[in-house]
Design goal:
550 residues; alpha/beta; seven-stranded mixed sheet; 23 helices; 18 strands; 40% helix; binds thiamine diphosphate
Length: 550
């Protein structure tokens, strides 16, 4: 066996069964080795940001890593933004990055670069494999490192000669360590805090937003009156009818402060203490209110479900009935289309066990409300804030869960970052419905321009946020990549298009032409409303929050 063949076998034996690739010359032996390993599915992408985002989406749904195959430092660099999103979501990904043969490095040829430096920005584990004999041991260490907990990006750099030389020795996966659980003293302290009176809340993140953790947290909530919050951008949250409803912390710091105001105790479960997404002049970055004690029931390294179960037992809440979301759907919308009506239609028509990949930005503000009582579904979000994630994530989610419908909701600006994902959807015949909100703008940045206190509101500044000139034609873009597509301008057309998309096998794209929700009056008054929130009574501030969010 050569190194590449042994590596391929090792990866599949370790459970890595899909490779999202965009190869070059230095990876040719790995590509050739695919023919010797029928258990490895190879999925070609036309940009590295698609490969890395697909690996991220796959792992969020499959619960185990996929591999990427990337071409030296430049290929890895192209994939960095979505690896960043995976890192922030604590998602396991194994990068295999080809490099020049070891004897070629001295010549500083065209594609020579410092791959390890590029990799380190996103990877907890980085290694350049030094010999064919050691390669497979390196590979299983990479897979084990990626799985954590916490899940993380591991990057194995594979020199071409290590790959092509004979003498590869497949290696078995090491036994993974069992994650520790919160100790008794921590659990006792938290149990006491939750029973001590005053306002308390959980902040649930990553693995704590899946059913077992949600049910345990909801039992505690029912027993103690503790509020359940999810982190702003969940890696994967299970929600809908029959599951506990969890409110997400708002993206806008002012609204998040309203949610958290008056808390005496905040319990983190696989989540970090809440901070503002960006800094704003004169505003605090730390969102924990004064006088609130922050507790950590599960760190990233610990077992979140076991920690919650331990707390359930400490509180005697095992037999408490958790409050569960009842089934409820909005009416189908009618009339002129808006982003809000698209969200309403999705709430009305969402199929069973759908996977929503949400990168709708300003257009998705009402989505959680309209889908709250829809059939049970998963939502994947933009964990690291680096846009261009949803179309690649949808590719990976559809490959991980071929029997589930995937709905990618994406702003027109975000879609353009990794639009090539449509081609992979067509090639692999993936059941992905893509909804593009074409509002001809980077709308969220219109709002941020005001919020950061920048003075630039002239034509030159505004033109940097306007993507309607020339207008983007997503139907033609999709058709050019082999994806069936329609453009809709009314709610009735959208309802029909969504029904058609959901019953059509393979990918389908709906271009929803919607107005920019952040022009005109809303844009002018929003910063002032947000500024005033802190000084308003809680119920009024909460009511405004529901109206003006994001
Ligand atoms: C990699 C990366 N580049 C740039 C940004 C800054 N950014 C945040 S949102 C946004 C525009 C989003 O536009 P669109 O997807 O059309 O959604 P809308 O704001 O119109 O709702 C940009 C450029 C980012 N978050 N990540």
């Amino acid at each position: 066996m050569n190194g590449a063949q042994a590596l391929m076998k090792t990866l599949v034996d370790a459970g890595v069964e899909v490779c999202f690739s965009n190869p070059g010359t230095s990876e040719m032996h790995f590509v050739a080795a695919l023919d010797h390993e029928p258990r490895m599915r190879a999925v070609l992408t036309l940009f590295e940001g698609v490969a890395t985002g697909a690996a991220d989406g796959y792992a969020r749904m499959a619960g185990k890593p996929a591999a990427t195959l990337l071409h030296l430092g430049c290929g890895l660099g192209n994939g960095l933004a979505n690896l960043h999103n995976a890192r922030k979501g604590r998602v396991p990904v194994v990068n295999i990055v080809g490099d020049h043969a070891t004897h070629h490095v001295q010549y500083d040829a065209q594609l020579q670069s410092d791959i390890e430096t590029v990799a380190r920005n996103v990877s907890k584990w980085v290694r350049t494999s030094q010999s064919t004999a050691a390669l497979c041991q390196d590979a299983v260490e990479a897979v084990a490192a990626s799985m954590g907990p916490p899940g993380q990006v591991a990057t194995l750099i594979l020199p071409a000669d290590v790959s092509w030389s004979e003498g590869g020795v497949p290696a078995p996966m090491p036994t993974l360590t069992v994650p520790p659980v919160a100790d008794d003293a921590v659990v006792a302290t938290i149990a006491k805090a939750l029973q001590g009176g005053g306002k308390t809340a959980f902040l649930l993140g990553a693995r704590a937003l899946r059913e077992p953790a949600l049910m345990a947290a909801a039992r505690i909530a029912a027993k103690t009156g503790t509020k359940l919050y999810a982190e702003v951008f969940p890696t994967r949250i299970e929600r809908g009818a029959g599951l506990p409803h969890v409110e997400r912390i708002a993206y806008l710091a002012e609204l998040a402060s309203t949610q958290l105001a008056g808390l005496k105790h905040l319990v983190l479960v696989d989540a970090k203490s809440p901070v503002s997404f960006f800094a704003y002049p004169g505003k605090p970055s730390d969102l924990v209110p004064e006088g609130c004690t922050v507790h950590r029931l599960a760190t990233y390294e610990q077992d979140a479900v076991a920690g919650l179960d331990k707390l359930v037992a400490a509180l005697g809440a095992q037999d408490v009935q958790p409050e569960l979301q009842t089934p409820q759907r909005p009416e189908r919308p009618s009339g002129e289309l808006s982003a809000e009506k698209v969200c309403q239609a999705i709430g009305a028509l969402l199929p069973e066990r759908a996977i929503i990949v949400d990168e709708a930005q300003t257009s998705g503000v009402k989505l959680p409300t309209f889908t709250r009582g829809a059939p049970r579904h998963d939502v994947i979000t933009l964990t690291g804030g680096a846009i261009g994630q949803s179309l690649p994530n949808a590719v990976g989610a559809a490959i991980a869960c071929p029997d589930r419908p995937v709905l990618a909701l994406v702003g027109d600006g975000s879609a353009m970052y990794t639009i090539q994902a449509l081609w992979t959807m067509a090639r692999e015949k993936l059941n992905v419905t893509t909804v593009i909100f074409n509002n001809k703008a980077y709308a969220i940045l219109n709002m941020e321009l005001q919020r950061v206190g920048a003075t630039g509101k002239g034509d030159k500044a505004r033109s940097q946020l306007d993507i309607g000139n020339p207008g983007l034609d997503f139907v033609q873009l999709a058709q050019g990549m082999g994806v069936q597509a329609v453009r809709v301008t009314t709610a009735e057309e959208f309802n029909r298009a969504l029904e058609q998309a959901l019953r059509t096998p393979g990918p389908f794209l709906i271009e929803a032409v919607v107005p920019n929700a952040y022009t005109g009056l809303k844009l002018k008054v929003l910063p002032h409303v947000l500024n005033a929130l802190g000084s308003l009574p809680q119920p009024l501030a909460q009511a405004i929050k529901r109206k003006v969010a994001p």
